[in-house]
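Thread: Glycosyltransferase, structure

OP (GT): Posting the sequence first so everyone is looking at the same thing. Length is 304 residues per the record. Can we get the structure tokens written out before standup tomorrow? I want them in the notebook alongside the other entries.
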Amino acid sequence: MHGNRITALRWQNFLEKLGYAVVVSESWSGDDAAMLIALHAYRSYSSIMAFHEQFPDRPIILVLTGTDLYRDMAVHDEVVCSMETADQLIVLQSSALDSIPAHLRHKARVIYQSVQVDAPNTVTSTDFPVIVIGHLREEKDPFCIARCLPLMPLNSKIMVLHLGMAMNQQMERTAGEYSETLERYQWIGELSHVDTLKALSRSRLMVISSRMEGGAHVVSEAIALGVPVIASDIPGNRGLLGDDYLGYYPVGDEAELASLLSRAETMPDFYSALKKQIDTLKDLVSPDREMQSIQELTTQLLKD
């Protein structure tokens, strides 16, 4: 399931618990509504403009994505227009605030994505299981993990499980070829969200290799489960994991990724330090915290 869809359904769940009636759709239907919550400034541009024209006094919340902030804003005027029209801008990690145009930052706030986890973090394998979760598309640099495996020491016990739908035929072919030629790599496509969380909970490490992220939900899930993360050094990951996090590598650098993975596997002190840093972040991703933030936001806007 795409991260944006997960976000939409989670907000729907919180809002319904707070007593609101909520409809989730890919675009605004034109039906009467007290408030519009839009996810993705570029894709929701038409819905935002139409809602504002029909109900100029009703609030619009815009949740900004990584592609809004780190790609589309520079090339599509609709992104900033959506941001200017919205009453409140939401970002999913703190460093995203720096990417919002200065004249709009006063109406931006961070709401961290929460995770409700039931799966226990139990690693039973004698290998060193590493997981990569995310649909296979260019923005994710999905095969950095596969490129790094031939650079690992021959005695490494690392085994990589790659979950996510291939978004085109070339990605599917490449993933299949790596699965056939690399003994330590297995791509199995998309699993249900429940099964994905179970697989994550059975992993020693998660790798997120994205070139851009608004605030990846899988990172929040890893935090909730206490699974250390090796992450590409981008604002979307720094805004969740913190500037002092020890598990960053330069984007696209498979040699540095291999080095970090090897350190995590062979140096218990380094692995423990990563684990400790992840565990200190668990409060950020608590459902109670996110629900309270959403309640404060909607109450204030509807009151205004």
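GT: Both are above now. Quick notes for whoever picks this up: The domain at 128-284 is CATH 3.40.50.2000 (Rossmann fold). The chain has a mean pLDDT of 93.
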